[in-house]
Amino acid sequence: MNNPRSFLLLALALVSFMIWNQWQQDFSQPPVAVTAAENTGVPAAATGTTPAPGTIPSADTPAPATASGSTAASVPAATAAAGDLIEVKSDVLKLAIDTRGGTIVRADLLAYPREPKDFANPVRLLDDNAATFFIAQTGLVSAQGSAAAPDHMATFTAEQKSYALADGQDSLEIPLTWQDAQSGLTVRKVFVIKRGSYVVDSRQEIANNGTAPWTGNAYRQLQRVSPPAAKSTFGITNPEAYSFTGAAWYSPSDKFKKLAFDKFAKSPLVDTTVTGGWIAMLQHHFVTAWIPPADEADVYSTSEITTATPPRYIVRAKSPLLTVAPGATQTTQARLFVGPKLPSAMTATAPGLHLAVDFGMLTFISEPLYWVLSKLHGLVNNWGFAIILLVLLIKIVFYKLSEAQYRSAAKMRKLQPRVQALKDRYGDDRQKMGQAMMELYQKEKINPLGGCLPMLVQIPVFFALYCVLLESVELRHAPFILWIQNLTAPDPYFVLPILNAAAMIATQHLTPTTGMDPVQARMMKAMPVVFSILFAFFPAGLVLYWTVNGIASLAQQWFVTRRVEASDKA
């Protein structure tokens, strides 16, 4: 694949891919059609003014616990002053739960350090810091005429200040309680963590000890600000800059949908009823998702709080209308996945959740590549060696195509003296020169474009693997050998880009320059330098793939060329 004639085409394809990828994020999300749904009443955005009956109050306006003037409950969008924080720790998660609303305001992923091997500073996925604000909320809202219910601004009481999963303990419950003495309504909000799991079970037990039925809705929502822009040099050193960040949701009918933060106002998700789906906030390598019960028809929506600084974005799932008779108890529940984008764990958690590992338009190629790569890692227990084995497998699959390419190149190489003679004969007469070249190719049964097809087939594989290396959290901070201790970061000493350049230069010596004008020939000579500079800023795992592929291609081309020359001599 390192045919010099193909380098310019590859560069064009690379630029086109990046432009297409950015276009997908900027313009491909169509407006979401409004679906008529029972018990709606959640508008698309907060307004920042005093809320009218049945509307969502803004971040500046405290919301009453009971909606009025509407037959349906309205979900408050605001947050309020913090209460007491309850610390919860399992073997993989460290959470902070605010008694104000029973909101999960912090979530540390203990197995994923921010920097390689710095486990004292784990990734904080949920955070109540203003610059990186991201929280998971649950609550209840009452319908018109019903008693007050605790939304995510109500104050709960806790039995303990901290909880920790003990050795030998598989699960742990964290209960919070809210009571309204006037109506007799008691709500017990319970979170459950489990050993080795990134799933937090959440349930709200509604006990009606009053004399009148209670009617309302449960809701779950994720609220966050747009994260700070990923730092990068020349726009390509940080893969996070190319990974989607925003809201996403899934339904069995419409499958996976996503909405970037800058599209919330233009193309909001408006009151769409979904059964068996989930809502989420995505970012590079990590996902947070609320998963309602599979048989529950929830109303999904998004909203933007423009009065907050910076603006906040909400994706919400609201349950069907609940009715709790006097003396009765009813439980509503959901699950929160807060963790890394591990396809196996997400597939086991909810249908379609693995699609949060967003490989983009080349998913149909990326997913099989990821599957093969993970199986190879299971054999060698090293992602770098798994990438090398994947290259060799791909070379075997494309061997016949590559062989045809190199045979065509070897035959054209033999024609170089005759082509030079034609150039000397016809000089600057390009028309006659072209006709003579075509006659020569026809006589020798050579297809000058015979080397393009193998490269065109392999370019999508290259980009698909780029998406795999970009999105696979398993490769995050994964070491290879010696100086490469992070396959998702650039090679710190540029050894792989230099090796790739050497392979390209060697390939140029084996590849004919028949019919190439001087300008094009000079460009071909400059391509190893250009690609070395480009690959110096790419993840080391991708450059490892490309370098090994170049060396393997060089070896195959040398072998085929020698066979063709030996056959001619015989």
TrEMBL record:
Topological relation to the membrane, as annotated: Multi-pass membrane protein
Transmembrane annotation, as ranges: 383-402, 452-473, 493-514, 526-548
Residue ranges annotated for the Membrane insertase YidC N-terminal domain, each copy included = 86-372
Signal peptide range in chain numbering = 1-24
Record-annotated Membrane insertase YidC/Oxa/ALB C-terminal domain positions: 383-562
The places in or outside the cell where this protein is found are: Cell inner membrane; Cell membrane
Q: Which UniProt keywords apply?
A: Cell membrane, Chaperone, Membrane, Protein transport, Signal, Transmembrane, Transmembrane helix, Transport
Task: Return the annotated region ranges for Disordered.
Answer: 44-70
- Highest taxon of the source? Bacteria
Q: How does the record describe its quaternary structure?
A: Interacts with the Sec translocase complex via SecD. Specifically interacts with transmembrane segments of nascent integral membrane proteins during membrane integration.
Report the sequence similarity comment from the record.
Belongs to the OXA1/ALB3/YidC family. Type 1 subfamily.
Entry function = Required for the insertion and/or proper folding and/or complex formation of integral membrane proteins into the membrane. Involved in integration of membrane proteins that insert both dependently and independently of the Sec translocase complex, as well as at least some lipoproteins. Aids folding of multispanning membrane proteins.
What is the protein named? Membrane protein insertase YidC
Native species of this protein?
Tahibacter amnicola
From the UniProt record, report the name of the gene that encodes this protein.
Answer: yidC
